[in-house]
Design goal:
By secondary structure, this protein is mainly α. It contains 17 helices and no strands. It is globular. Helix 1 crosses helix 12.
């Protein structure tokens, strides 16, 4: 019989936590977004990367502060629940898990599409199978999932470094002239596009209770993950533009492969293409990890059915929430049409980040990690994320309204009442 008082196991090191952040950040997006952003910013896409990294750092500092103060599973959901209100916390968690399940299903289809280039397999079967495979990996232990993710992350970083190392000797300085053909507005537009490729560092906070020495490790791993990904993005964008030029990159759906093709190194082209498989695999793994922990946290706060709040006595993982998340994602990948709802994932993350910055503002630096120049970063984080949310297409707002309405219908009565006493919800 499974007992609810069994605690989650603190098994993750600083390296594991950084790897989870990088696994969520460095996805297939970098293989595509460099080209799209080059169309907006021209060779100035490197400046767009720097600007996007600076904007992302505002919210990263808020996550770091909150992660050092509130050591509980659930990340942004838990912070909003604790510091703003239980009802808003519920809708934060509800919208986030809905968006991430859609995003996970889309990523699994991307993984299957990349794999089908090498192996002629049915895409939807492979996508659903990948969701189930990573579900079972998450089930047997967070450390086992982390080891696989560490391997995937190290491999995809190696692929990007190979891209830079092979391509650097083919860079033509003439490809950087003029640097900003569309002016500074083009650079800003490119930064808005690249910003989405930085999202994911908050995934670390969803597994806070499974991290060793979380007061130090959680904030440090968030900042390291953002810093490492920023350097990689800058190197990759500089190399890609230098080899192929911004016009060639912007007209391709696979800009890094196009840049490698110019070098004539067919092996490097194959390696870079394989990087898409590694990138989507690690994003899928960390997405399942994060969704299951938010479900678990919501159930522990009695905002989801309580049977989800169950930890396996042997594996010491929230196995019910993992099974629930994995089967939902697999079903959506196999049966769903994601074209109209995948933008929900972006909106869910952006809206969550607005509330995280507000929660950090309310925290007022009462934590072990102090936000530099407080309260400027959380205020800038709120403004920048709100601007991005308003820039999304109108149909996204209609979908969000429907999702939130479904939450009102589903929500238990507790979310409208007084805040639950967290001490009562803590497992002994």
């Amino acid at each position: 019989m499974v007992k609810k008082h069994v605690k989650l196991k603190r098994a993750l090191t600083l390296f594991d936590a950084v790897s989870i952040g990088l696994g969520a950040i460095i996805g297939a997006g970098i293989y595509v977004v460099v080209g799209i952003a080059s169309g907006a910013a021209g060779p100035g896409v490197m400046l767009s990367v720097i600007l996007a990294g600076i904007i992302a750092s505002f919210t990263a500092l808020s996550f770091a502060a909150l992660g050092s103060a509130i050591i509980r599973e659930g990340g942004a959901y838990e912070y909003v629940y604790e510091l703003i209100s239980p009802s808003l916390g519920f809708f934060t968690g509800w919208l986030w898990v809905f968006g991430q399940i859609v995003a996970g299903a889309a990523v699994s289809l991307g993984f299957a599409t990349y794999l089908s280039i090498l192996l002629p397999l049915p895409v939807k079967f492979v996508a659903a199978g990948a969701c189930l495979l990573f579900m079972f990996l998450n089930l047997v232990g967070v450390k086992q999932s982390s080891l696989v993710n560490d391997t995937l992350v190290a491999s995809k970083i190696l692929v990007l470094l190979i891209f830079v190392a092979v391509g650097v000797s083919y860079i033509k300085l003439s490809n950087f002239i003029p640097l900003m053909p569309n002016g500074f507005f083009g650079v800003v537009n490119g930064a808005a596009l690249i910003f989405f490729a930085f999202l994911g560092y908050g995934r670390i906070t969803t597994i806070s209770e499974e991290v060793k020495n979380p007061e130090r490790v959680v904030p440090l791993s968030i900042l390291l993950a953002l810093g490492i990904s920023s350097i990689l993005y800058l190197l990759v964008s500089f190399t890609a533009v230098g080899i192929a030029g911004s016009d060639a990159l912007s007209s391709s759906a696979s800009p890094l492969a196009v840049a490698m093709g110019i070098t004539g190194n067919e092996l490097a082209v194959l390696v870079v293409s394989a990087g898409g498989i590694l990138a989507t695999a690690s994003v899928l793994l960390t997405t399942l990890l994060g969704v299951s922990r938010v479900f678990f946290s919501m159930a522990r706060n009695k905002q989801m059915p309580e049977f989800i709040n169950t930890i396996h006595p042997h594996f010491r993982t929230p196995y019910v929430s993992i099974l629930f998340s994995g089967f939902l994602m697999a079903a959506l990948a196999f049966f769903g049409d994601l074209k109209q709802v995948v933008s929900l994932a972006s909106f869910s993350v952006i809206s969550t980040h607005i509330l995280v910055n507000y929660a950090a503002f309310k925290l007022r630096n009462r934590c072990s990690f102090k936000i530099p120049l407080y309260p400027i970063p959380p205020l800038l984080g709120m403004v920048s994320c709100a601007a991005l949310a308003l820039s999304l297409l109108p149909h996204v707002w209609v979908l969000v309204s429907l999702v939130l309405l479904a939450g009102v219908v589903f929500s238990p009565e507790q979310i409208w009442g007084k805040k639950q006493n967290h001490a009562k919800n803590q497992e002994n």
